[in-house]
Amino acid sequence: MPTILIGGYYGAGNIGDEAILAAMVDELRARHSDLTFIVTSWEPEKTAGDLLVEAVHWKDINGLLDAALRADLIILGGGGLFFDYWGLNPDTYLRKDSWDITAYGSLPLLAELLNLPCMIYAIGVGPLKTSLARQHTRLAFERSQVATLRDKESLELLAQTGFDFESRRGRIVEVLPDPVFSLSISSQDEESATVFLKGCGVDENAQLLGISLRYWDFGVALNEWLPCIANGLREFFNQNRQAKAILLPFQALGDSSHTNDVVVLEKLAGLINMPERIYLIPKIQTPYFAQALIKHCRVVLGMRLHSLVMGINAGTPVVGLPYDPKIKSILESVGLEDFCCASLTPEANVLSSKIQKAWDTSGEFRLNTRSLQEKLNRDAKKNAAFALDLLSRSQKNELQFPQQFMVQQARQLFQADTSLAQARQINQALAEQLSSSERSAQNFSARLAEIEGSSFWKIAKLYYRLMRETPAKYLYYFYVTWKYEGLRGVLSKSVKRMKTALSVAPGSAFKKKKKILASPEAIEAAEAVKEALSGRTLNGIAIITSAFVFNELYNQRVINLSKYLAGRGWGVVYVAWRWSKSEDMLSIGKEVYKNIFQVPVDMFLENLEAYSSINSGQKYFITEFPHPHFLPAALKLRRSGFKLVYEIIDEWEEFHKVGQASWFNKAVENAFVVNANFLTAVSQPLIEKFSGLRRDIHLSPNGYTPSLLGEKHRGISLKKRMNQGEFHLGYFGHLTESWFDWDFLLKVLDLAGEQNLKLYIHLIGYGEPNIKAKIEKYSKQVKFYGKVHPSKLYEYVTSWDAAMICFKSGKLSEAVDPIKIYEYLYFGLPVIVKGISHLKTFPLTQVVVDEKQAVDALVSLQAGGRRLSAQDSTARERVLAASIWEQRFTDLLEIMENEKWMFL
Q1: Residue 70: partners with Cβ closer than 8 Å, 6 or more residues away
Q2: Check: CATH 3.40.50.2000 for 706-883?
Q3: Whole-angstrom Cα distance, residue 115 to residue 394?
Q4: How far is CA 865 from CA 97, 722, 831, 859, in A?
Q5: Cβ contact 170:196 at 8 Å
Q6: pTM to 2 decimals?
Q7: Distance between CA 864 and CA 881 in Å, rounded?
Q8: How do beta strands 299-302 and 207-212 pair?
Q9: CB neighbours (10 Å) of residue 439?
Q10: Residue range 324-378, pLDDT digits in tens
Q11: Does domain 3-175+399-418 have CATH number 3.30.390?
Q12: Angle at alpha carbon of residue 340, lines to 335 and 341, rounded to 5°
């Protein structure tokens, strides 16, 4: 399946550019249905959802590199991308700080470096005010094999850059209409626009003037040209009492005034001051909807280029306001130059008369431009034909060393830029905090000076000096004790004070506190671990933090990872969490499994220097939960030669929101992500969450251990007949209300009863303190077994017909990769899942969204029995083979060892 990488000004809410992308993708798909698109966007998720494409953020250089490495063709465009209104910095190619010419020019540069074909697609050029801008525009075109321009003026400007049309080595350069001339709308789009306007109070038969303006202050200030437009419109409205206006913001992005048309349109409405005749559309969601709205208009007055293009598409007469040369150029190209104003500051009567002329001839315009519309539509589609012809000649070759080196250097530069930007943000935040603190300190000092100068303060100061520094204090103590505790209390406390005074060494009360040193137990444990590890021949050392003590049979990722590394000849320091030193922990500093030595977190942090000095060829510090205590330890270990590995195994931020991770700090987790030498995540949603910080996050899902579940119990459920007349559904795992969806489960029971399905639920797990109250009403249908060791699960699943995972919908559950899914499949159980949509790719697994879908799935399973199709059987075996913990970690270690040179 060929892949095309498309870059342009997409995802910024600009309807014109979104129309270009929509028209481009629609036409390419119409000609070649088997295509994969990756689009650079300012809002990747929205772009991906709107057009069913993949998308990557423009500033994510790693993502851009990944996309280019997958691509068979790179397309830049369309739209007016080559201009230098805001200058140009040639050092920003393939950098986060790129903008305009260097941002868009990065794609042809990348294509040339990777030896990929590149097309510049329906581009507008200009203005180019500097020789530097002309030079870099020329370079972009020279790096492309095909270039189409949307008007003759752009072609002339390209010639002025020095681009050699005579010796262009087979390059194709053509002038073709803007892709939006091929944009078509459906009757449903028109109906939506009708309903929308009616909802805004616009009569179906209203005579509408569509107005599209944008902020502009180059050459002429907004407060100079906007009143001119308002005056002309007011004159037109006074002469046409039936006319009304709809204000069409083609971009409503609040980042700056240049990207928010609403601000200008609101000012225009205020200047005209005819509120009963003007309707402001707050936001236009899609280009199809925009064109449908314009089709409802009798005339369109437009600054935005694509408001004019859509007017011509819809057969609606247009009047252009030339803030940029492209407005005049596009109207001249279609023979409508008489409907373009000479400037942004026309006389009121001149603007009014142009709108009036278009208004009076709207019927003729629709008839006369029909053939023009058809020709523009045909010619605009030629852009796609050029692109697909270039794609057909694409030949991808394996990257050579210079190309690999370029990609790696670009990645490292991106990482450096990211770290620098974060450092700047931190410095700015600290500066703001310091400034705030200084202001608070000044206010506090002034208030304190006022208090200390008061008579009350002087009296209070004298009183406390008497009560603390003179024998009067003993009288005070005597009085208070006698009043509340009587004579016996006085005598008792006096004896205690005397004993305390006699037991304190002279002068000890005045000694300064010393730095807390490692306890003898911590030193002893560290020395024992170091001595044991130094006496062995090991492949490396891994310090691994865990939320619980080591238990060989406890089926958790961190324990399985520790056992795997130990079995591969690594020494493992297993740092087990405990909340206080008073908690008992067995085997401190001892070998709890071959090559695995356990120490509690407090002893580890007290004596970090001892562990940081361990000598070994490879040294990793691996953590799976980003506790704030571990961050400074991780950074210190990095300075001592350890590589920092952060495994993102849960959505900790969402855990924190439901009160399950009180220690969590978002800034700390982000710091782990940024500073880690190597990153993994157990699910794609977790990768996507942090993709703005890092793109080199490796997917490393969870798994299972066959020996723990019992080799002979593999597929045990498949060997049993389905229960007759009953359905037994089981679950094992965490039952806490923060993510286990009890309401959903009970609704499933109720609905099953209504449909005469005899449903029985079997719960194995922990975490819900009110389990009896939860299931009291359903005690005959729900059975709770408490905790069960993983090695004993087979005894229970033999009576189940299917298994379930019913989690609350939301970010917390969507991100998880539950170990139980692999265990269910190991036993051969069909699985019903709610709350984790990405599990839909697993075999024998059905994701549902509500109780009706769940009950329907159970009924279907009961009707189908235990029959397993060959396809499902093959898919299950494939998943199980890849998901054994040993295989998971073999893949992980191979990637880590192959990439370790990156961190030197």
Answers
A1: 3, 5, 38
A2: yes
A3: 10
A4: 60, 6, 14, 10
A5: no
A6: 0.51
A7: 26
A8: parallel
A9: 10
A10: 888 998 899 888 999 999 999 999 999 999 999 999 998 888 888 888 899 999 9
A11: no
A12: 160
Query: What tokens does 188 get?
Result: 């449903």
Residue type, 425: Q
Asked if pLDDT for residue 735 goes beyond 50, the answer is yes
Give CATH for domain 187-369: 3.40.50.2000
What is the chain's Cα-based Rg? 36
Token pair for residue 15?
Answer: 């309807």
Distance CA(293)–CA(454), nearest Å, equals 72
Beta bridge partners of 761: 729, 782
Q: What is the identity of the amino acid at 844?
A: L
- Token pair 């830029």 is found at 417
Dihedral sign from CA coordinates of 478, 484, 490, 492: negative
> CATH top-level class for 520-699?
alpha beta
- The CATH 3.40.50.2000 portion of the chain extends over 187-369, 520-699, 706-883
pLDDT in tens, 840-895: 999 999 999 999 999 999 999 888 876 778 888 899 999 999 999 999 999 888 88
H helices of 704-818, in order, are: 706-709, 742-754, 771-775, 794-797, 811-814
Q: Which amino acid is at 385?
A: A
Name every residue whose Cβ is closer than 8 Å to that of residue 725 and which is 6 or more positions away in sequence: 758
What are the distances in angstroms from CA 564 to CA 104, 593, 629, 647, 822?
A: 47, 11, 26, 16, 18
Which residues are bridge partners to 340 per DSSP?
Answer: 320
Q: How far apart are CA 93 and CA 105, in angstroms?
A: 7
List the structure tokens of 887.
Answer: 């295989």
In one letter, which amino acid is 505? A
Distance CA 781, CA 750 (A): 11
